[in-house]
Amino acid sequence: MGQGTKWMHYLKQLSAANVPAALIEKGQNRVIDASLTLIRERAKLKGELLRSLGGVKASTSLLGVPLGHNSSFLQGPAFAPPRIREAIWCGSTNSTTEEGKELNDPRVLTDVGDVPIQEIRDCGIDDDRLMNIVSDSVKLVMEEDPLRPLVLGGDHSISFPVVRAVSETLGGPVDILHLDAHPDIYDAFEGNIYSHASSFARIMEGGYARRLLQVGIRSITREGREQGKRFGVEQYEMRTFSRDRHILENLKLGEGVKGVYISVDLDCLDPAFAPGVSHIEPGGLSFRDVINILHNLQADIVAADVVEFNPQRDTVDGMTAMVAAKLVRELTAKISR
């Protein structure tokens, strides 16, 4: 039994012991307020620094969302954010991106820490409220101009509250480039509307995206294709990648909307490049395929996420952590300017 589950049982015992529901709710609200204050103050600190330095139109700010309980198979992605940060700064490579951006420059990259997901769940807060907390945390980062959030998952369920927050903050839909082995567009996978396999159904239902391009798809069911047609999704499957490569390496997105959101599920990559994922699907993109798509993309990127790294399945030398870190570095270079 997980720690969050134990606390849910404890809360039921409190209720059975006639502890007033209002008292329990008051405690939960204090945890929520403290969690949001943590993100707010860190974002304010980074925003003030960048505004004082001047000359920054957009700056990437890391926000960790260590959530794994909406995974349908393994919950290891909850442990990913600290492993990705460790790999970014491990010293085995320099701090310059391929396009020459210097990550040690706070005008390029800052970090506001993690949303304390486990502590929030420990006090019995359900997923409806939890998703709102994730959205509110993203909004707090975006309110501190010029910060733009690059969210470290976590499983793919986090993309829904993150995209919702981005769209609501900017006042309209965005275009989304989604790299993944799976379309994650089930209506409610295994009965869970917040499943990591249903995040893009929630996004499209909410009207938070105008265009959704899904690249790297190679594990898709009839429902996945039907849902794709229902929402007008542009699904690029790996079986036709050689034919589609020229299109995907010359994308121009975001015209007429509030910007572009990029979501990278690490299992978009062939497991030869990223074995540390929960759902291993052979026949995926090479790392250079992904980097070429990102480098050549013409877009104003307003936010992004890197999700579904599972440290519990990584190689001993942390190969997938380094892959995730490299993706973060190159996404940072695209966002910051």
From TrEMBL:
<comment type="function">
    <text>Catalyzes the hydrolysis of L-arginine to urea and L-ornithine. The latter can be utilized in the urea cycle or as a precursor for the synthesis of both polyamines and proline.</text>
</comment>
<protein>
    <recommendedName>
        <fullName>Arginase 1, mitochondrial</fullName>
        <ecNumber>3.5.3.1</ecNumber>
    </recommendedName>
</protein>
<feature type="binding site">
    <location>
        <position position="180"/>
    </location>
    <ligand>
        <name>Mn(2+)</name>
    </ligand>
</feature>
<dbReference type="GO" id="GO:0004053">
    <property type="term" value="F:arginase activity"/>
</dbReference>
<keyword id="KW-0479">Metal-binding</keyword>
<keyword id="KW-0378">Hydrolase</keyword>
<feature type="binding site">
    <location>
        <position position="267"/>
    </location>
    <ligand>
        <name>Mn(2+)</name>
    </ligand>
</feature>
<comment type="pathway">
    <text>Nitrogen metabolism; urea cycle; L-ornithine and urea from L-arginine: step 1/1.</text>
</comment>
<feature type="binding site">
    <location>
        <position position="156"/>
    </location>
    <ligand>
        <name>Mn(2+)</name>
    </ligand>
</feature>
<dbReference type="InterPro" id="IPR006035">
    <property type="entry name" value="Ureohydrolase"/>
</dbReference>
<keyword id="KW-0464">Manganese</keyword>
<dbReference type="InterPro" id="IPR023696">
    <property type="entry name" value="Ureohydrolase_dom_sf"/>
</dbReference>
<dbReference type="GO" id="GO:0046872">
    <property type="term" value="F:metal ion binding"/>
</dbReference>
<feature type="binding site">
    <location>
        <position position="265"/>
    </location>
    <ligand>
        <name>Mn(2+)</name>
    </ligand>
</feature>
<keyword id="KW-0056">Arginine metabolism</keyword>
<dbReference type="Pfam" id="PF00491">
    <property type="entry name" value="Arginase"/>
</dbReference>
<dbReference type="GO" id="GO:0008783">
    <property type="term" value="F:agmatinase activity"/>
</dbReference>
<dbReference type="GO" id="GO:0033389">
    <property type="term" value="P:putrescine biosynthetic process from arginine, via agmatine"/>
</dbReference>
<feature type="binding site">
    <location>
        <position position="184"/>
    </location>
    <ligand>
        <name>Mn(2+)</name>
    </ligand>
</feature>
<dbReference type="InterPro" id="IPR020855">
    <property type="entry name" value="Ureohydrolase_Mn_BS"/>
</dbReference>
<feature type="binding site">
    <location>
        <position position="182"/>
    </location>
    <ligand>
        <name>Mn(2+)</name>
    </ligand>
</feature>
<comment type="similarity">
    <text>Belongs to the arginase family. Agmatinase subfamily.</text>
</comment>
